[in-house]
Write a structure and sequence with these properties.
Layout: E1 11-13, E2 16-18, E3 25-29, E4 36-41, H1 45-61, H2 69-85, H3 87-98, H4 102-123, E5 130-131, E6 137-145, E7 148-152, H5 158-171, E8 175-179, H6 186-198, E9 205-207, H7 212-221, E10 227-231, H8 234-246, E11 252-255, E12 261-264, H9 271-283, E13 295-299, H10 302-316, H11 337-352, E14 356-359, E15 363-364, E16 372-373, E17 376-379, H12 386-389, E18 396-402, H13 405-412, E19 417-418, E20 420-424, H14 428-437, E21 442-445, E22 460-461, H15 472-475, E23 478-486, H16 490-497
Bound molecules: nicotinamide-adenine-dinucleotide.
Nicotinamide-adenine-dinucleotide (NAD) binds at residues 152-157, 161, 179, 181-182, 212-213, 216-217, 220, 231-233, 236, 239-240, 255-258, 290, 391, 393, 419, 459, 464.
């Protein structure tokens, strides 16, 4: 696909592109070849304040929050249509900005994003509120939008993660201020423009690019923001909780990293498929995936390991990185030089701690000006090694061995993360037993990353405290109001009003 796509780096506030108030910008370079893409506004506290004021004004006016449901739904349908109309432009922008293959971008991030918006939109007039079963009065339990949502997003699925937040928050009638990652802001900025074209009123969706420690912190600290919806690293999530506790105590909803255990049992139904999917589980999106299957747990049996790993290695060839703008490319560049260095350091650190290199371990295309790393498999990894505990966020698979089912469960659960786990077995009892034992928000049996928009996504432990997608994805963007209308049965009402918890 062509690189001719023009990138807009300004903020999108109150229905138009605007420069940051300070005039400060930072340069964005493509990880594919190091070429300059555009300047991006380095927004600061003033810009965030301006965007939040606009969002508040739009929310209180009711222009979106009180829009008839069918109309709100049609606007989001129109947004999905516009995303599809601009799918090539968006896919190329995403690829240029963060290095992922354009074919996957088109299919998963952009078309997937349009599909997600439609799913959220379809729910708008199908989510009913509740009535209390108590007939002594009329108890209405109603859902209301929370108000102004501050969304802070990561760089690995910039458009798609923004869609999860924006789609569900807008569907519920909120106004949203998005601070995209400084490492990949371009498609999110474009989303602001497309939403406005679709009919999202001005001020309802504000896109404010900038650095995390400046613009992100200002959003996290703003006292007129009603909740923060964050996807990123757990270290940043702690900062956001701190900002909240120091300001208005807003809820901070967190989707953070993972260290997914992919457990293959000898009784797996189809070991060929398990090997193929195990390679995909870690090498898809160059391993820059929160739920990447970064720990492959195999039974401690030399013959089994040799046969299985040789299959995984063969399938890893499919994920060799090259020019992500080529429609045949399945893997592209890592997001930037610093991240490439980080991945290299993790691999070297693992080797220093006693792991062995089974395949990969080298930078690819060093003369391209971009940041490419081979699919890498490390064997002999033990649970105490840094690489077995920390998120690499790159194309590096750690192979670990277990003695029996109990040992596999212990190793799988033995990290601070709890986003996802996968199990390959043909034994139905084991499938249920091990799924129940997993301390993770998602469990995939005989597949990896199974499910669709109907399934909640989120983590246990340091992987997060919320769920995106499905009906659960709406909860953080709504308030519950309990309205009790007395029917004049005073004695009964008085007696029962205090019968529950105070
Ligand atoms: P990050 O935490 O560095 O940055 C995420 C966002 O937070 C960016 O927009 C950044 O500018 C902002 N930020 C950084 N410091 C900030 C601060 N002090 N105050 C306010 N905002 C700040 O994470 P990242 O490197 O962009 O993303 C990778 C991480 O995201 C990985 O850990 C990955 O697993 C996780 N992730 C999780 C999910 C999920 O759904 N659970 C999805 C995608 C990515």
């Amino acid at each position: 696909m062509s690189k001719s796509t023009k990138a807009e780096g300004r903020a999108f506030i109150n229905g138009q592109y605007v420069n940051s108030m300070s005039g400060e910008v930072f340069a964005s370079y493509s990880p594919i070849d190091g070429e300059f893409l555009t300047n991006i506004d380095a927004c600061n506290e003033q810009d965030i304040h301006h965007a939040v004021l606009g969002a508040r004004r739009s929310f209180e006016s009711g222009v979106w929050s009180a829009m008839p449901l069918q109309e709100r739904k049609n606007v989001l349908f129109k947004l999905a249509d516009l995303i599809i109309e601009h799918e090539e432009e968006l896919a190329v922008l995403e690829t240029l900005d963060m290095g992922k293959p354009v074919s996957l971008c088109l299919e998963s991030d952009i078309r997937g994003g349009a599909h997600a918006i439609r799913w959220f939109a379809e729910c708008i007039d199908k989510l009913y509120d509740h009535m209390s079963p108590n007939h002594q009065g009329i108890g209405m339990i109603t859902r209301e939008p929370i108000g102004v949502v501050g969304a802070i997003t990561p760089w690995n699925f910039p458009f798609y993660m923004a869609i999860w937040k924006v789609g569900s928050a807008l569907a519920m009638g909120n106004s949203v201020v998005v601070k995209p990652s400084e490492r990949a802001s371009l498609t999110t900025i474009k989303l602001g423009e497309l939403a406005h074209k679709a009919g999202v009123p001005e001020g309802v969706l504000q896109i404010v690019p900038g650095y995390g420690r400046v613009a992100g912190a200002a959003l996290g600290r703003h006292s007129d923001v009603d909740c923060i919806s964050f996807t990123g690293s757990h270290t940043t999530s702690r900062e956001l909780m701190k900002y909240s506790s120091e300001t208005n105590g807003k809820p901070v909803h967190i989707e953070a990293g993972g260290k997914t255990a992919n457990i293959v049992f000898k009784d797996a139904l189809n070991l060929e498929e398990a090997a193929q999917v195990s390679a995909q589980a870690i090498f898809y999106n160059m391993g820059e995936v929160c739920f990447a299957g970064s720990r492959l747990l195999l039974p401690d049996d030399e013959d089994f390991i040799e046969t299985f790993l040789s299959k995984v290695k063969n399938y890893s060839e499919y994920w060799q990185p090259y020019n992500p703008l080529d429609m045949q490319s399945m893997a592209g560049a890592l997001v930037d030089a610093a991240h490439l260095q980080r991945v290299e350091n993790f691999v070297q650190g693992a080797l220093d701690q006693g792991a062995q290199l089974f395949t990969g371990g080298k930078i690819k295309h060093p003369d391209s000006g971009g940041y490419y790393y081979e699919p890498t498999i490390l064997t002999g990894v033990t649970p105490d090694m840094t690489i077995a505990q920390e998120e690499v966020f790159g194309p590096v698979l750690s192979v670990m061995t277990y003695q029996d089912e109990e040992d596999a469960i212990r190793i799988a659960n033995g990290t601070d993360y709890g986003l996802a786990s996968a199990i390959w077995t043909g034994d139905l009892n084991r499938a249920h037993r091990v799924s129940r034992a997993m301390k993770s928000g998602n469990v995939w049996v005989n597949c990896f990353h199974g499910g669709d928009m109907t399934m909640p996504f989120g983590g246990y432990k340091q992987s997060g405290n919320t769920r995106d997608k499905a009906f659960t994805g709406f909860e953080k963007y709504t308030q519950i109001k309990s309205t009790w209308i007395a029917l004049g049965l005073r004695i009964l009402v008085n007696v029962n009003a205090h019968s529950g918890a105070s």
